[in-house]
Design brief:
The chain is an alpha+beta fold. It has four helices and nine strands.
Length: 155
């Protein structure tokens, strides 16, 4: 089954780019200097930020559904990120090298299935989850820290 992954739209984050650390702190956001690569997966480009770059660590509502599965968690956004990853049947760099938790949701936002898999092997699990006709979309999370990684849709 064909699938599509797109990084987050940078528009909601643009107003944060270049703010002072104090202004970010007022919004409960932390600017971090990336000291290793991999280590800071950007949710816009879905690539690891280069060592020496800056990441904004912020809370993001990735599951806004009005269900018990409504959820928000910490994510990294590369300061200045502008071009979202777009790929069909491609697992982006930041997801390939990590253990992933894939969670299938129905159209009402209720989780109906989930499993864990190494990122480079994710297409097989994505296909299995989308074999269920009630699976409307899948959320990928970095399994070790639990952070939202990306939304996966049928292509």
């Amino acid at each position: 089954m064909s699938f599509h992954i797109r990084g987050l739209d940078p528009a909601p984050f643009r107003e944060l780019y270049g703010l002072s650390d104090a202004a970010l702190a007022e919004r409960h956001i932390v600017r971090m200097r990336c000291d290793t690569k991999p280590g800071y997966p950007d949710r816009v480009t879905l690539a690891d930020i280069d060592a020496g770059g800056h990441a904004l660590l912020l809370n993001y509502t990735h599951q806004p559904a009005a269900t018990p599965y409504r959820a928000a968690h910490a994510i990294f956004v590369q300061e200045g990120a502008e071009t979202p990853f777009e790929g069909t049947d491609v697992i982006p760099e930041a997801l390939q090298s990590r253990l992933l938790s894939l969670r299938a949701f129905d159209g009402a936002g209720m989780m109906i299935d989930a499993d864990i898999i190494e990122g480079r092997e994710a297409p097989s699990l994505i296909s299995r989850l989308f074999d269920n006709p009630h699976s409307a979309y899948i959320h990928a999370h970095f399994a070790r820290r639990g952070c939202f990684a990306a939304r996966i849709e049928r292509a």
